Structures are given as C-alpha cells and as structure tokens.
Amino acid sequence: MAEGGKSPWLVRARLLGVVPDDSSSDITVIGGKAEVDDSVTVDLDITYFITQNFAAELTLAVAKNDVSAVKTSVGDLDLGHVYLLPPTLTAQYHFLPDGKFRPYVGAGINYTVFFSADAGDANDIDYDNAFGYALQAGFDIGLDENWALNFDVKKLWLNTDVSVHALGTVVTTDVDIDPWLFGMGIAYRF
C-alpha cells in the first residue's frame, strides 16, 4: 500500500486526439513532402505511485493515420495509412495527490512500432520503428475516493525513415511526426 492507505495503482482510459506536428525532408527523386493526418483513438495507462508524489506511467494506444506525399513532381500521392503502437513510459510528479484537483507533469521515452501499412498509390511502403522523447502535463479531478476525471496532454518527438516503392523506383524521406496527444477520460485508483 502507498502512503495514506491508498493503493499504489491507478488506471486511466481516455479518448485521445493524435495531432501530428509533422515535417519531412524532401522526398528523394520526386521531391515534395510527406504529411500525416490527425486521428482519434483510445488509450489506456497504468500508473504506479512510487511515493505519494512520484509515479511511473505506461501509456498504451494504437492509432491509424493516413499519409500522403504533397507537392511532388508527379502531383500529390496517397500513401495509404499506417497503424502506430507508441507505448510511452513517463516519470511523473503529482503536485497535490490528496486534493480534489490533482495536477501532474511527466517526462519520459517512447518507442513507436509501425505496422499494417497500406501503400495507397504506391506498390509498397516501409516505416522504421523509432525511439522518441515525451513530455506531459495533466490533471485528475476527484469524483470520489476511487474515481476521477482526467485531462492529459503529451508531446512526443518522433522521427522515422520512410521508404516508398512506386513508379519503378524507391523513394525515401526522413519524417518528423512529433505528435501532440490530447486525452480526456476517466481514472480509477485501486
């Protein structure tokens, strides 16, 4: 048991808006830039309180994002979609753990796995899995002893190399996805 007789375990379920702050190097051969669209998904996090104020959080989610190549020498191209699994581990500091309003901040690492890519107008597309950094801020609003509403914002710095097989050649680009993650949901402290 954590201090004050509370369990050290907290779980949250959130509706999550994924808003890439994307940029890319010029796509080789055809020029242009890669763009990643916004998406909405759900996430689940598991938090363990090491002390009353310090905790570790593991966030799990799967997001589907549409990708395109714009302003290329052959026009805009639909590069299909890709699923991202970006588990993120953060160390958190909780400012008012016993209050009704419980703000927190965190920093940590992320490892994003790209899978089930659909190539769209291309023959094939490959994304390199990648490590990144994460910052977060959020707060819980206590509803009773165990339940709370949660609002959370994370910023991930995420870069991947993308290879597109199309038009009889392979074109590559380096893409900074750097998404903002806006979450709203419920929390339960055991």
Distance from N terminus to C terminus (CA atoms, Å) equals: 10 Å
Reported for the largest beta sheet, the result is: 8 strands, antiparallel, barrel
Helix proportion of residues, in percent?
Answer: under 10%
CATH class: Mainly Beta
Strand order of the largest sheet: 1-4-5-8-9-11-12-14
**Average pLDDT:** 92
> What are the segments in which pLDDT stays under 50 over at least 5 consecutive residues?
none
Which fold name fills CATH's third level, the topology? Porin
Proportion of strand residues: over 45%
Number of helices, counting only DSSP H or I runs of 4 residues or more: 0
Query: In the CATH hierarchy, what is the architecture at level 2?
Result: Beta Barrel
Q: Can you count the beta strands?
A: 14
Radius of gyration: 19 Å
> H/E element string?
EEEEEEEEEEEEEE
Query: How many independent structural domains?
Result: 1
